[in-house]
Amino acid sequence: MARDKKKTDKVEPRVLKGFRDYLPREQIAREAMLSKVREVFELAGFLPYRTAALEHAEALLGPQYSRDSLAELFGFTGPDDVDMALRYELTLSLARYVAGNPDLPLPFRCYQYGPVWRVDKPGPGRFREFMQCDIDIVGAQNLFADAEIIAVMVNIFEHLGIRDFRVRYSNRKIHNGLVQYAGISEAVGPDVMRVIDKLERQGRDAVMLELGPGRVDKSGDEIPGLGLEDGQIVQIGSFLDTVAEEGGDPLEKAASLLAGATVAEEGIAELREIQRHLKAMEVDETKTGVDLTVVRGLAYYTGPVFETSLLKLPDFGSVFSGGRYDNLVDRFLSRPIPAVGASMGIDRLLAALIELKALKLSEATSQVLVTVMDRQRLPDYLAILRKLRRAGIRSEVYSGDTKNLTRQLKYADRVGIPFAVIAGSDEFDAGTVTVKNLAAGREKAVATADREQWLKAEEIQQTIPVAVLVDYLNKHLGKDG
User: Fold this and answer.
1) In this structure, are residues 318 and 308 in contact, taking their beta carbons and an 8 Å threshold?
2) Single residue among 355, 376, 400 that ends a domain in this structure
3) What span, in angstroms and rounded, lies between the C-alpha atoms of 409 and 412?
4) What is the rounded distance in angstroms from the CA atom of residue 145 to the CA atom of residue 423?
5) N or C of the chain: less Cβ packing under 10 Å?
6) CATH code, domain with 431
């Protein structure tokens, strides 16, 4: 009985459904990607900032929220009887941040990244906690701001080494004109946008059903429909089909289909202006283009919207998307502040980079392991470590308990350290060390069946004077990365 009780006293190391942990190699890759993203943001003059993960419920849901709507988030009543919730995106937090800091110089060109939480049904590649990275320009009404966000999006993908992508952009004002044209009430318009936004993910048939009577998804769940009239659904479908047809200018097609809808004409003119700005900035025309099937489902978008697709990975969906939201800051202020921005799904984009082999995976942060063969000479090993670190070479002394060199080298292999420095009393007395190129050794072992030949290969292992160790490693790290 005592043994059984002891078992029940242990906590099972489970991760909550819809959440995940990250291995070091995954986190190293994520940080490497974010570093490249930050380089592009700051080259364009965007400022980093950070907002709180927990927000007042009314900040996320509006002042008329209910306890039922709070339950749709990771929400709860906290200290001092305050309703609060984990943020489900970063844009609302930005709006609250701008409203709460009236001395911010406008336009506020900014970026932030951090985790967000959504009470969605978990699935393959779909988690309840994930990281987003946003870039925004707050306080600029002119459409050059929209064009610059698109230009930065293009630069991000080029800087990450992705070549086959396209930033597609549209305008919610054109879709508002479509709602008017189809005789749909303005109140139902945001719901229509939300459904059309599923076009690429769910397909045309699913969208048409959801606009009408509803449908059953692949998991068997019933998706209620909007109950639009058949004629209205036909008009929406006809518009989407026509503007998606190859050949011709989609804006001219939209102007012809929605002639007389003032709001649509305004949206078309805005996209023409964005095109002119992108051309003036010499943004690659093959990387961007108008696509009027792009809607974006969030209700707060007021004008241009954009999405990025990876042409070699169409099933990944949009990995970087956004638009103009001129009314969102109004939730907190009595005066309007225009804004435009885009949000990147960090984990989805990271998975895409790995799939496309556009990001070199690393297992370790250390570039060199200084092995320890003689504990009495630890000060000598630490002297080597100081020399390497002062030269900016990321390194560590083996901190385990074994003196067995083979085990130490196996540790370096397991965590992905590319070089090992080996020295015993004889080497210290002679002022030399042996450097083993473990990364090259792994490659050579695959290509060479003869172990004797492998051991004799100079690129695998060399004994050199300690005095030239830094230069030697710098040369080889520069060549091998």
Assistant:
1) yes
2) 355
3) 5
4) 59
5) N
6) 3.40.50.800
Q: Which two tokens stand for residue 161?
A: 């080494």
Q: Are residues 198 and 238 in the same domain?
A: yes
Q: Which domain holds residue 470?
A: 368-480
Structure-token pair, residue 406: 């083979």
Residue type, 361: L
pLDDT digits (tens, 9 = 90+) for 325-365: 999 999 899 888 999 999 999 988 998 898 888 887 777 99
Q: Is the dihedral of CA 232, 237, 240, 241 positive or negative?
A: negative
Strands 129-138 and 108-117: antiparallel
Q: Is the pLDDT of residue 65 over 70?
A: yes
The answer to whether the CB of 160 falls within 8 A of the CB of 36 is yes
Q: Which residue in 325, 297, 324, 294 sits closest to 309, CA to CA?
A: 294
Q: Provide the 10 A C-beta neighbour count for residue 330.
A: 14
Percentage of the chain beyond pLDDT 90 is: 75
User: How far is Cα 246 from Cα 356, in angstroms, rounded to an integer?
Assistant: 28
**CA separation (Å) from 387 to 151, 307, 416, 419?**
44, 49, 22, 15
Residue 446 has pLDDT above 50, yes or no: no
Tokens of 54: 């927990």
The residues with which 306 forms a beta bridge, in sequence order, are 169, 322
Contact 393, 475 (CB under 8 A): no
- Return the SS3 of 266: helix
443 pLDDT tier (thresholds 50, 70, 90) = low
The widest CA-to-CA distance across the chain, in whole angstroms, is 91
Sequence-ordered list of residues with C-beta below 8 angstroms from that of 423, at least 6 positions apart, any chain: 371, 373, 377, 380, 381, 384, 432, 433, 434
**Residue 453: pLDDT above 70?**
no
Distance, CA of 242 to CA of 215 (rounded, Å): 24
pLDDT confidence of residue 314 = 87
Number of domains in the chain: 2
Instruction: Give the CATH number for residue 246.
Output: 3.30.930.10
Distance CA 232, CA 183 (A): 7
Q: At what angle do helices 230-244 and 204-211 cross, to 10 degrees?
A: 150
Helix intervals (H) in 44-90: 57-61, 67-70
Q: How far is CA 133 from CA 48, 56, 81, 87, 91, in A?
A: 11, 21, 31, 14, 10
